[in-house]
Each structure stands twice: as C-alpha cells, then as structure tokens.
Request: fold
Amino acid sequence: MGGLFGLALSASLTAGADDLAVIVNPQSGVEQLTKAEVVNLFLGRQKKLPSGATALTVDLAGPNAEKQQFYTRLVDKQLAEINSYWARLYFSGQGSPPRQAEAAEEVLDIIENNKGAIGYVERAKVDPRVKIVYILAD
Reply:
C-alpha cells in the first residue's frame, strides 16, 4: 500500500510540471485573464490589457518546444501557421508580431520592467517579479 501511496503522491507533485503560465507585471492592474483575452492579446486583436494599459506582448524567439506548446494549447496551431498569420498582418500593415525574447529569463526581465507587458513561461520558472493571470495546462 505504501508503494501505491508513494506513486500517487509522486504523480500529484509532477502534475502540471509543464504547465505554461501567462504572466504580467504585478503593477499592471490585471488580476486574471480569460483564454479569449489571452488569444486576442497574442494574436494582436486586442491592444490593451483589461486595466487599460497598452499591452506589450512578449513571445519566445524562434522555434522551440515551449513556444510550440503555448500556441498549440492556446489556438491549436503550429508555429508555421502562427508565423504565416503574423507575416500576413505585418505586410498588409495591420499589425506587428509580439516582441521576441531569447529565453524565459528575458521574458521575466521585460515584464518586470514594463507595466503593460504580458508573456508566458513554464510555470516552474515564475518568480516574484511577475504575476500569473492564466494557466495553460497540458
């Protein structure tokens, strides 16, 4: 029985280990977001946070597993589709893609220093400089 309990405890501790946290600056005035709001912000359809602050969306640069998970969980799209979407908007003058960050630490730094910034990192990488407003679970 102890073995089953240990297995169950281990499973509960690792549940959500690869969840992605959508994060903002704690001074943004945003307490939480809906999935629709996150979609609209990251696809450039919404330019302001619900608090009224101008949104600065921050995305991870280049193709990587974390970025792919984010867009798969958020809008069920591959990175090639997201890149194509932004190319169409950009070249038609209808929008610009999110600011690019090379790594999670850079995302955290940008959000810490910009009241209207919003980005995402693995939940395990969240620190006190930012506030979680939405979780994209596996």
